[in-house]
Amino acid sequence: MGVGHDTSLKERMNARLLGCGGDHDVKTTVVLAHGFGANQSLWEKLVAHLVGDERKLSVVSFDWSFSSAIKDPSVFDPLKYSSLDAFVEDLVALLDEMKLSSVVFVGHSISAMIGCLASIKRPDLFKKLFLIGASPSYLNSEDYIGGFEMEQIEQIFTAIESNFQAWASAFAPSVVESKDPSSVDKFKESLSELRPEVALKMAKIIFCSDLRGALEEVRVPCTIVQTTNDIVAPTSVAYYMQKKMTNAPSVDVKIIEADGHFPHLTNTTTLVEILDGVLVET
């Protein structure tokens, strides 16, 4: 029996509240939003660092409707989820339903931009944005290096459509970029369990989006975290975002000397140190 749409959004999105959940001494709530091909289990290492007796933190993690962790296929309505706007609406509605505000939002990859858009719509919900591997546009143009030419993006669509499992098996190690097989396998498993039609739909939404014009509307303090070698988002993108976020109170760029698009899997300790610096300031 499916989850159904008469259930709460929290249930449909598998949202979990960890740490000092109903403790009145909680200082900060950290919300973790995974990226394309992932699910909330990819945050496990980060959650282990964040949830501890000495920390006054609540941690919320959830699964987007496109995640392989969502077992009811009806949850992902291709008509509803035809742009990132629907995901922004889900995020805002989830935070409202859970009665959360002034959160530290940790968004990976496309979730970083969903967080930015949600903060524009409802700045009261966000105290800080912590953006990992963010990119407002993946397509190169004359004055912008997004990392991909249109021909490369079209090749991704063709590969997903023709043989999704073969594409997923090749894509996972190329973006995780880790000598630790368990990190690669973690993402590969999550990615491979996606329904091919959902993967193609999301890939088209993500790779064809151009959100550069929204950056100047962000009015929440941001920390942008990038690795030195990420085939999905070049380091130049982080500095482009910093330059364009002219109305945010502060925009810090933190570069991790590492490979790959998943520092929360491969460089967790370094990522936590950066996040701790942000949390100290809240």
UniProtKB/TrEMBL annotation:
**What is the name of this protein?**
AB hydrolase-1 domain-containing protein
Similarity remark: Belongs to the AB hydrolase superfamily.
Database matches in PANTHER family:
ESTERASE-RELATED
UniProt GO MF annotations: hydrolase activity
Q: Which UniProt keywords apply?
A: Hydrolase
Which InterPro entries does the record associate with it?
AB_hydrolase_1 (IPR000073), AB_hydrolase_fold (IPR029058)
Q: Where is the AB hydrolase-1 domain?
A: 30-266
* Gene source species: Stephania yunnanensis
